[in-house]
Amino acid sequence: MALRTQKASASRWTHDVFLSFKGADTCKGIVSYLYHELQHVQGIRTFKDDREIEKGTTISPELLSAIENSHIAVVGLSPNYASFTWCLEELTKILQCMKGKGTVLPIFYNVDPSNVRKHTGSFAEHFTNHGERFREDIGKVKRWKDALTKVANISGFNPQTHESERKLIEDVVKWACSKVHRTFTLLDSTELVGNKFRCEQVDFLLASDADDRDQDEWKSELEKLQKIPKSTIFDALKISYDGLDEMNKRIFLDIAHFHKGKDKEEVIEILDTYCLYGLIGVDALIQKSLLTMEKSQFHISYINVEMHDLVQQMALEIVHQKSCTGEPGERVHLCHPEDIFQVFINNTGTSQIEA
Q1: Are 85 and 141 in contact (CB under 8 A)?
Q2: What is d(CA 72, CA 218) in angstroms, rounded to the nearest whole number?
Q3: Separation between Cα atoms, residue 291 and residue 282, nearest integer Å
């Protein structure tokens, strides 16, 4: 039975989590996928502030409001963090608003917490500059230093000590879920009805087509379905696909073409090598009922990634429709025998082809 996490009770917060990252020298990919996992997969209301540059030392009223109305915060600290005065203002505001124990999680990117705490290393240079610039408002500089000392004393995560970026994201998500008091509940009724409706459509169409058909006609119909799914079936199944972001669409198509029936851990590892964040993607596809997990018949400890044959046919047809106006040799995937034959005969293959 499908389960999803959901807040146990209504919250007075507009945002559950405030993400504060200075994008130039922290991993933007991690921020994007952390936001995706929190907001779209776990359903945790998340505000992401990952601006590259902010002029001046003040922060906008909108940003102040977002901080004031957030329950917890994740802050990315890096060697150049203290060079941006708006970062320091933002951090000061976060710590002022979130005084409860365990409501702020620092992530130390390529920086030792002791340098942050004692304002040494690159932080010393930045504060020398701030001291000269704000010599008439030394109290502001002191507030920034106090904020850095306070956040550095909080137990956080160091990406360099994690075995992978995927594990780091998992740990941050677990921390956030524990702070916003998650409980488990059944999928909401609209999703269950939607999935049931799509399944009933497929079952009804296949059953009705079987009436009054002799063996040869039915065999012909099956061959037709295997090549191009009927439009109604295709449209019904494609609802879930269209709701995916571009990264998860790529993961879905790759699994349909290359990885159906493989061990889940192997699939995730392969996807991670292409910076696709496989764990997040696979979980999202399971939520959309586009993938299922089944125990391997040959390895008792393996869990295989599977999908319904019609879902796989839909994936193949999506690729075919996307590129049917161009040359087969310029496609990422070649599915139909006649296209493969044409590419070999005409020697029109390109580096675009993956399989």
Answers
A1: no
A2: 59
A3: 8
Q: CA nearest 283: which of 310, 329, 248, 234?
A: 248
Q: Mark whether 177 and 274 lie in a shared domain.
A: no
Give me Rg for the CA atoms of the chain: 26
Q: What are phi and psi of 37, to 5 degrees?
A: -65, -40
Dihedral of the alpha carbons of 232, 233, 236, 242, in degrees to the nearest 10: -110
In the structure encoding, which two tokens stand for residue 246, read together? Answer: 């571009």
Residue count (the chain): 355
Catalytic residue among 89, 90, 165, 354: 90
Q: Which domain holds residue 339?
A: 325-355
**Does residue 165 carry a catalytic annotation?**
no
Helix axes 309-323, 246-254, angle to 10 degrees: 110
Spatial distance between the Cα atoms of 271 and 31, rounded to a whole number of angstroms: 18
Computed from CA positions of residues 112, 113, 118, 119, in that sequence, does the dihedral angle turn out positive or negative? Answer: positive
Which residue stretches of the chain have pLDDT < 70?
Answer: 1-11, 23-29, 50-58, 181-232, 300, 322-326, 328-337, 341, 349-355
| Domain identity same for 156 and 217 | no
Q: What DSSP element (H or E) covers 175?
A: helix 165-179
Residues 110 and 257 in one domain: no
Tokens of 342: 């044409």
Say whether both 170 and 214 belong to one domain: no
CA distance 149 to 301: 47
- pTM for this predicted structure: 0.54
Rounded distance between C-alpha atoms, residue 279 and residue 269, angstroms: 9
Looking at 182, 211, 238, the residue that finishes a domain is 182
pLDDT digits (tens, 9 = 90+) for 39-51: 877 778 999 875 5
| Angular region, 8: left φ>0, alpha ψ -120 to 50, beta rest | alpha
Q: Report which residue type is found at 108.
A: F
